[in-house]
Amino acid sequence: MIQKCAHTAATILVLTLLAAFTGSAFGQSKVGTTAASFLGISVGPRATALGGAFAAVADDATSLYYNPAGIARAGRSQFVFAYTSWLVDTDFSWIGLMFNLDGTNAIGLSLTQLNYGEEEVTTVLDPEGTGEKWGASDISIALSYARNLTDRFSIGGNAKYIQEKLWNESASAFAFDVGLLYITELHDMRLGMSITNFGTDMRLDGKDLLKRVDLDPDAIGHNENIVSRLKTDDWPLPLFFRVGLAMDVLKQENLRLTTAIDALRPSDNSEVLNVGAEMELYRLLFLRGGYKSLFREDSEEGLTLGMGLNFSTGPGFSWAFDYTFADFGLLEDINMFSLGVTF
Fold first, then answer.
1. pLDDT digits (tens, 9 = 90+) for 209-243
2. Model pTM?
3. 84: closest CA among 144, 37, 142, 38?
4. Whole-angstrom Cα distance, residue 128 to residue 163?
5. Which of 62, 54, 50 lies closest to 287 in space, CA to CA?
C-alpha cells in the first residue's frame, strides 16, 4: 500500500511540474529580481559536466544541492570538496558531507561560499588608498535529512542559513529545500524533483546605513544630530524548480552509459533544459559531456566537458578526482575541480 501511494504521489508531482514547464517554456526573463544569485551557481564538476542535469542522477554528495533525496538512495557516506575559479577573478567553493545512517536514513551537511576578494578603499581625499580593505562574500550553510520510504521512493530536505556581505553591510535569510526521487520499473529509469530556496527575504543592514540628520533645520534648540538608519528594500531568494529524468542506456560489467535531462524553472530567469551523459569505464575512468541552458535567449552558458578518476584504496573506501570545463561564451571559460572520499 505504501509503495503504491508513493508511486502515485511521485507520478502526480512529476507530471504536474512537467506540465508547468511545458506551458511556460517561453516565459519572460526576470533577471535581477532576487537576492543571493550565487545560489544558482552549479555545484560540483561532475554534475556541471552533465550540464547541470543531476536532479534524477543524485547519487553522490552534490545531491545535497540538486536533490537532497538522493543522499538516502546513495547507500554510502561521502565527503566532497569542490573548487571553481569563477567569473571576474572570484572563487567559488563547496564542501559537502553525506552520512549513511542505516541504509534507509541519511543526513548531510554542506557549505557554499563565493568569495569576491578584497580591494583597497579609496576616497576623493585619499585616491591612493586609506589603508583599509573592503571585500564581499556570500555563504550558505545547510543541514540535510533524507529517507527511503520504499525500495524505490525517497524524500529529503535541507534547512539552510544564507548570508551576503558587502564590506560593513550584510543581509541574511533562512530557507528550505525539498526533493523527491523515484526509481521506475522501466529499466530503472529515475525521476527526480526538487524545490529549493523557499524562505525569507533579505535586507541589507550595517553601520554604513547609520546617518546623522537634522529633522527640522529651520528650528533651534533641538538635537541637530539624531542618528537615523537608512532602510533598504527587501529582496526575495531565487526559487528553483527542477524536474529530471535519468537512465542507464547501456550497462555492462565494465561499461556504463548514463543519460540525463533536467527542466529548470528559476524565479529570476527564463526556463531552460539541461542535458548530459556520463560514460563509466571499468569503474575507474569517467567521461562526461553536457549542455546547459538550452532555449534561453542570450545565454552565455553552453557546452560542458569533464572527466573523473576513481581509486579504491581498501574495502568500502575510495577516492575520486573530478575536473570540468564549462564554456561561458563571451565571458571567460570556467574550470572546476573536486576531491572526494567515499567510505
1. 888 887 777 777 666 677 888 888 999 999 999 99
2. 0.88
3. 38
4. 31
5. 50
